[in-house]
Amino acid sequence: MMNKFLSVVSTMLLLSLLSGCNPASSGNEQSEPPLAGATIGGSFTLTNQDGGKSSDTDFTGQYRIIYFGYSYCPDVCPVDLQRLMQGLALAEKNDPTLAEKIQPIFITIDPERDQPEQLKQYVAAFHPRLIGLTGSVEEIAEVAKKYVIIYGKREDEGASEYLVDHSRQGYLFGPDGEPVALLPYDGTPQEIADEITRWMR
Fold this sequence. Notes:
About 35% of the residues lie in helices and about 20% in strands. It contains 6 helices and 9 strands. The protein has a 7-stranded mixed β-sheet with strand order 2-1-5-4-3-8-9, with helices on both faces. About 35% of the residues are buried.
């Protein structure tokens, strides 16, 4: 029930942010990125999987694929990440220069458990260049708000571990941190690769 609620709320928020960003004009629908002008994203400084600090400015000049989730997620996050990273790998195979132009980033919404050592092991399973980011509870809340990610801890009676319900978005951001497109995280690797290369300039 909570997952359905988060999905509906997240969709409504995105629609409100996107409305009016891309006024319709004949022949222009395919040339303008879907998220052009949307108020999504922003600055951050978080702790990476090696224990150092990573900021959004570290990736200036690179496109960024950003996904929010958590390593203890039993099903949704690993499936989404696998598909997104398979799509990226396919795009890189078709055009090796993309490896220098795109940085994949995973940001946890469960900082209490996702410490750097946990993230390092987790992100390595999906892509050799995937960066994992964590931080304090307050830092993650601030970043999630900027990126329109809704999440909440769910503790089921009798369960030994809690789950975290969260909205699911695979974002593509541009070289200056501008929002470009939503990636079809539930699509095939080819569909994801096509969407990545479609908006690369």
